[in-house]
Amino acid sequence: MSTEEPADKPVVCNDCSHYYITHVATFRYGCRALEFKSKRH
In what order do the strands lie in the sheet with 19-24? Predict the structure, then answer.
């Protein structure tokens, strides 16, 4: 039995300690662990 999540299930980062809201208007959401910023949640 595998413990991995299905590939089609969306990832929810809202409760993650690495998730944050940036001050960049074009890239509002970010992840400190993976070091990226995104337009989408």
Answer: 19-24, 27-31, 36-38
Q: 19 lies in a domain? A: yes
- CB atoms closer than 10 angstroms to residue 34: 8
5/21 Cα distance (integer angstroms): 25
Domain membership of residue 33 as a residue range: 11-41
Counting the structural domains of the chain, the total is: 1
Amino acid at 20: Y
User: Which residues does the chain have with pLDDT short of 50?
Assistant: none
pTM for this prediction? 0.65
